[in-house]
């Protein structure tokens, strides 16, 4: 007898389900549990983009962006941040990822569009910095779980200088 694997029906996913998922992502990033955080992503075809704050609608294929990671680069980023090779993040900063104003759109092409505002506080060497902006996600069902297929983190800040470098994951 063969077991049937059912895929998550995205039309039944509630905003509370999505909020719990995003809160879990935030907690994993705050705990620096980046290997577990990677498991929240779809197995293939993923993209994580952080455009420059002067071109928030910038296309990573033609415009300068701060981050444009596919699954290979995302894995390499996590490997580097988990090692001593990430000099800006060893020892790790303390972070506090805050998610709010979560909006879930209707399912489109087997993807669930989600928007959420964020504030990420970073504490390092006696200094505090805040990154403020809006995440745009495309979530998919893998088995019975939500996974991230696409994440775009658009910064609302008009300049990066007060926040310093961005060596953390938003």
Mean pLDDT metric: 87
* Discrete helix count: 3
Q: How far apart, in Å, are the first and last alpha carbons? A: 45 Å
The general outline is globular
- The share of residues in helices is 10-25%
What class would the helix/strand composition place it in?
alpha+beta
Let me know the largest β-sheet: 6 strands, mixed
In N-to-C order, the SSE pattern is: HHEEHEEEE
Q: What is the rounded Rg?
A: 16 Å
Number of DSSP strands? 6
Indicate the low-confidence ranges by residue numbers: none
Strand content: 35-45%
Cross-sheet strand order for the largest sheet: 2-1-6-5-4-3
Structure description:
With 170 residues, the chain is of the alpha+beta class. Helices cover 19% and strands 36% of the residues. A 6-stranded mixed sheet has the order 2-1-6-5-4-3. The radius of gyration is 16 Å and the shape is globular. The protein starts with 14 loop residues before the first helix and ends in a 15-residue tail after the last strand.
